[in-house]
Amino acid sequence: MQNDLTVSESLNSFYDQFIAQLPSIGMAILIIILGLLLGSWLGNFVRRRLAAKTDDPLMSRFLGKALKYTLIIVAIMLALNAAGLGGVAAGILTAAGASAVVLGFAFKDIGENFISGIILAFSRPFDVNDTVMIGDNFGKVKALEFRYTKLKTFDGRDVYIPNSDVLTTPVTNYTEDGFYRWDFIIGIAYENNIDGAKKTVLEALRKEPNVIEDEEHENFVIEDELATSTVNLKVFFWVDTKDFRKMALITKGNVVKNVKEALEDAGYYMPADIQEIKLYGGETEFPVWLSTGKGEKRAK
User: Fold this and answer.
1) What is the pLDDT of residue 222?
2) pLDDT digits (tens, 9 = 90+) for 186-202
3) Which of 27, 65, 75, 253 has a CA that sits 20 to 30 A from residue 58's CA?
4) CATH number at 17-106
5) What's the pLDDT band for 2 if we cut at 50, 70, 90?
6) Please, how many CA atoms are within 13 Å of residue 177, restricted to the half-sphere of its CB?
7) What distance in Å separates the CA atoms of residue 130 and residue 118, rounded to the nearest whole number?
8) Separation CA 120–CA 185 (nearest Å)
9) How large a percentage of the chain has pLDDT more than 90?
């Protein structure tokens, strides 16, 4: 009987304390809700204002998210205090500090990526929609998150690169200044005039509207190699990379076609490679079969 009274008294005492704590619990829930709403609103507000003032969507988005999550954590701590659970809030902070070393070793990569993300938010070699090469990954930058940078490759793949790798790997930016230099090789016959061929090639380059030429970006042609059957000329020309890489590839194809047709129209011959067969020994005859499509004919 005494045990029943003890249990009943405990339940009544818990009920009375719960009723007494309801206003505090309600206030705590209200603080969390307000924290979520205020954090989301302020995060979006800061993101929009920074994006408008700095023209840097990557940094503005990153800082907006950081502010949002910081306010949410502060709201949770305040809610615990309002609910009379200040000891719990202090315990969480103490445990977080005490476990920081252990978690630092356990989640070292996550920590590195997070810190790298903060560094990249303020200092990085690319912006949104820049075409970059990070390691072996080539594509357009689409997002900078807390742990990774997202690339969209030109064959449609989504690549998520850890921020620590972005920070420590050489990054090649193809669109920072908006220009890229293509080159290709074309061969002319040995009996052709080299200077005349180079002039013809440069004239063909000037006729292509998407080829860039100014004081800083000079197109030129050089003698590259004396090959087996041709004198190889190497053609260098500049293109706009704002629409890299499709437009740049189309421009290169147009240039190759135009140069080939211009050389043909000017009477230059572009022979195929000649294969030489050398016989060593006492051979006096070497039979050859010529195919005419209708049959074969043997010649000596």
Assistant:
1) 93
2) 999 999 999 999 999 99
3) 75
4) 1.10.287
5) very low
6) 9
7) 19
8) 40
9) 19
What ranges do the domains of the chain cover? 17-106, 124-173, 179-265
CA-CA distance, 193 to 198, in Å (whole number)? 9
Give the residue among 127, 154, 131, 157 at the shortest CA–CA distance from 61: 127
Which residues have CB under 8 Å from 171's CB, separation 6+? Answer: 125, 126, 132, 133, 134
- Which DSSP state fits 275? P
Q: What is the DSSP string of 136-203?
A: TEEEEEEEE-SSEEEEEETTS-EEEEEHHHHHHS-EEESSSSSEEEEEEEEEE-TTS-HHHHHHHHHH
Same fold, 124-173 and 179-265: no
Token duo for residue 127: 């912006």
Q: What is the pLDDT of residues 225-278, one digit of tens each?
A: 898 889 999 999 998 877 666 777 888 899 999 999 999 999 998 887 776 666
Other C-beta atoms lying within 10 Å of the C-beta of residue 238 = 20
The domain 179-265 having CATH identifier 3.30.70.100: the answer here is yes
CATH class of the domain comprising 124-173: mainly beta
Q: pLDDT tens, 206-239? A: 988 888 888 888 999 999 989 888 999 999 999 8
Indicate yes or no: pTM above 0.70.
no
